[in-house]
Structure formats: structure tokens, C-alpha cells
Amino acid sequence: MIIPGEETMPTAMTLAVKFLSDNPVALAKLVEENMEMKRRKLESGEVYNWTDYMSLSFTQNVINETLRMANIINGVWRKALKDVEIKGYLIPKGWGVLASFIAVHMDEDIYENPYQFDPWRWDRINGSANSSNCFTPFGGGQRLCPGLELSKLEIAIFLHHLVTRYSWTAEEDEIVSFPTVKMKRRLPIRVAMVPI
């Protein structure tokens, strides 16, 4: 329980900062959307609520794209409880199978330019990404992570406060994908407060 509860969200937040640092156009769009929300809240005096979070469509896109490109859990091991045939291949009872999430997320037949950080792709994808077998950062089916919405909310709140209060410069770093996804140098950044 420690890994899903304590490691995955900070890693996802770090990766979002990495991808946004490398894509100033996406960062500018994210800042614009979140600053507009902050202005509306300051003018109205209302508190933030669930509908505010859901209305940040580009922020949702950034979160989905971050999770697609750098799924924190690369895959899961399963044991076949009986003989299973999938697309003409037999998996005998008792065999172990590794379901690779990242292989699906980087499949060119599913995602155009899969190695490119493109939050706008989620505007072009029909239907809910969370119900698709092609987007599984939180697993799926009966084993769908119960923390899915809470996790995405945590990332959204972090990004909102980061881009509306601070600016940053990230040092060069690279993503390591095995055994889990992380930054090689932990993404050193220099942070400054944005003048009000």
C-alpha cells in the first residue's frame, strides 16, 4: 500500500513538471486556463469545488497525457487460472502473464506520435479515456484503482497552485522506465514566486 499511496502521485507530479518544462506551448495554455479559474474565484469569493476541477479541460488533458506517457506502474503480473486463448495464442493454466500498460500507451496503432507529449490529443479522442482498454494508468475492470479520481484531483490541485503562484526552470533530466518510472536525477528545478 505504500507504493500506490505515497510514491505514484509525487512521481506523476514530477513527470507533469518535466513534460510541461519541455513544452512551453502546453505550459502557457495550462497557465492561462488555471489563472482564469483563479481570477473567477477571487472575484466571486467562492471556494473551489468539484465542478471547478472538472471544468479545467486542458488540465485534465495534461494529466491524462502525463499518465499515458509515463505510466507509473509499467505492468502487472497475472496467473492464468485456467487455459485461456487470446487472438489465437494459448496461455496454459498456471502460466504467469505480464500485462504491459506502457506497451499499449506507446502503440502507434492507437496513439499518433506516441512518444510526443501532446495534451491536445485528448480533445481528439472520442469517449472517456478512463473507460478505454487503451488507457490504463489505473488498471481496469474489477481491479480499477479506487483512488483514480482522488489521484487525478491531487495532480490537478498541485498543478493549479504551481502554475498560478510560481514559475520554474528545470534542469536537463531523463526518464528511467525500469523497474518503475522515475527521473534519473529527480528533476532538479529552480522555483520563483510569481508577482501578484
UniProtKB/TrEMBL annotation:
It is a single-pass membrane protein. It comes from the Eukaryota. PROSITE patterns: CYTOCHROME_P450 (PS00086). It is found in: Membrane. Pfam families: p450. Keywords: Heme, Iron, Membrane, Metal-binding, Monooxygenase, Oxidoreductase, Transmembrane, Transmembrane helix. InterPro entries: Cyt_P450, Cyt_P450_B, Cyt_P450_CS, Cyt_P450_sf. This is 3-epi-6-deoxocathasterone 23-monooxygenase-like.
